[in-house]
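Repro:
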Amino acid sequence: MSGSTHEVTNQTPPLTGHDVFGADPALVEAVARGATPQTLAELTDLGRRAGGEHAQELGSRANSNPPVLRTHDRYGHRVDEVEFDPAWHELMTTAVEFGLHAAPWSSAAPDAHLRRAAGFVVWSQVEAGHLCPVSMTYAAVPALRTDPALAAEWEPRLSATAYDFGLRPTAAKRGAIAGMGMTEKQGGSDVRANTTRAEALAVEGEYTLTGHKWFCSAPMSDVFLMLAQAPGGLTCFVVPRVLADGTRNTFRIQRLKDKLGNRSNASAEIELDGTWACRLGVEGRGVATIIEMVSMTRLDCILGSTALMRSAVSQATHHAAHRTAFGGLLADKPLMRNVLSDLAVESEAATALAMRLAGAFDSDERDFRRLAVAVGKYWVCKRTPPLVGEALECLGGNGYVEDSGLPRLYREAPLNSIWEGSGNVSALDVLRALTREPAAVEAYLAEVELARGADTRLDAATDRLRKALTEVEEAGARRLVELMALVLQGSLLVRHAPASVADAFTASRLAGDSDAGAWGHAFGTLPAGLDTAAITTRATPHPA
């Protein structure tokens, strides 16, 4: 029978069956600058898995079936357990087997952190929520090394590449995962306002904790790092969920947070009531103990936001390469191409910075990391929500529908800017480093100056920045950190990216009398004369 109204035409095919790693030239090139051939091969394998239909279905299921809290069993006994969809466990299994959780700490490979960072970006594009406990585990290890005995006990368990879910003594498990409980309801980022009490026991280094944690990441983890007020001041503690004798530590989950995004991941409020803990570091030095951990989690915020950007750009460019309107492909329309190119340039700048920072952990560039990670955390995470929103708009009404996957990215986009210090916290941290750590400033400027003479617009922006660094004041912190981020990204792109990408970045982000230059207030406002066709083609994935 003719005249059917359900013939499907001019719809974009699904973006599946492709290599998420190999389809991202910016990521491949950034990794190749410091990775071994083996790492590139392993990332290709992970990229193919990430781009497969099965992995994409796992991500969708994990978000459609969020975790469920069970406070009591059928008989009324307190159990405090969180149940996850099987898709979550399959995603976690892949993440842990690849070593995204802690492999660099047990590896002698010269590119261990870079490999892990690139894998984090690739696998995050399947589903972002399950990377939270992965990130917490990665960050916990350097903090645990404050105490050699505790590190010797926990590090082999945390770095094992076996995902073994469930509340059992860790000695009986093939691997372990770490969580954290730092913030409290009255203080948030101001952890020094914590009120959880730590009371010393007769055995040296053992305490009981009593208090409330407002955000506890990954409550089904095997061990947690927590801050509490000991007699000597704010102190860091190691808190296992199950004690060595098999009994459960007091760890009462009050509720799971009903979050905007990150819905596959359980974030909880918990009560501690005589909860057994081991001191990590000395009393009163809790913040100093966790400071390296904060650097790691901030790196992962950058990586996670970079992944969200790349996923959104992939969807937008893929759609435009297949969808026709007004007599031609969207990708061939000059204005759409301007939008897509602007998005692609932002994504590539984030990728270049993220991989450079990851490599700085392999090369132990502490001074460079100190400032660059905080700068990157502020800017890359800030740029993600508007980029994802614009990418969603490229799909029109289709992008606003859950089936497209863009709404999930959009809900996730603000998270990393809030996590581990919101924008103001990150900006103020940069100001502290600028005024107290001259070696960090010198390392940052040395990196930027590696591109001196290659682009006059970048040179002029660097000179403006040097002047701004002599006029540091709190009210202008965001403006200063933005310029620092743009200059650092510009230096990386001018040195390493194709001329079309580097030219678009400096012409928009750095040209003119200010760092806004010729750039407009929305994506798609690149100045004329740029090779937008080359930029868009480079950013477009090509499924098999």
